[in-house]
Amino acid sequence: MPRRRNTERLVAIGKRVKALRADRGLSQAQLAEAVGVEPMTISRFENGRAGMGLSNLLKLAEALRAPLSAILDVTQP
Predict the structure, then answer these.
(1) Could you say which DSSP state residue 37 is in?
(2) Is 2 helix (H, G, I), strand (E, B) or coil?
(3) What residues have CB less than 8 Å from 62, skipping those under 6 apart?
(4) d(Cα 46, Cα 26) in Å, to the nearest integer?
(5) What distance in Å separates the CA atoms of residue 45 and residue 32, rounded to the nearest whole number?
(6) Which helix (H) or strand (E) holds 39?
(7) 3-state secondary structure at position 3
(8) For the segment 3-49, what is each residue's pLDDT rounded down to a tens digit?
(9) How far apart are CA 17 and CA 20, in angstroms?
(10) Any residues with CB less than 8 A from the CB of 17 and at least 6 apart, and which?
(11) Could you tell me the pTM of the whole model?
């Protein structure tokens, strides 16, 4: 049976990434360069269309100068 994504959770995490990026005054291209991914990947993260592995989550937190908990702090459905 294929793994099912929790779309609501991905969207909530993506919104936090987008908000943190905007607060830091970074473009998607700048964040992508810092994380080592393509700008389209950042867009997909922010829109909840792509999941983020632990490695990318840690890189995002470092690039955004934010604790990992700031990205993952989503309310349980």
Answers:
(1) S
(2) coil
(3) 34
(4) 13
(5) 11
(6) helix 39-46
(7) coil
(8) 556 888 899 999 999 999 999 999 999 999 999 999 999 999 999 99
(9) 5
(10) 42, 45, 46, 60, 64, 71
(11) 0.85
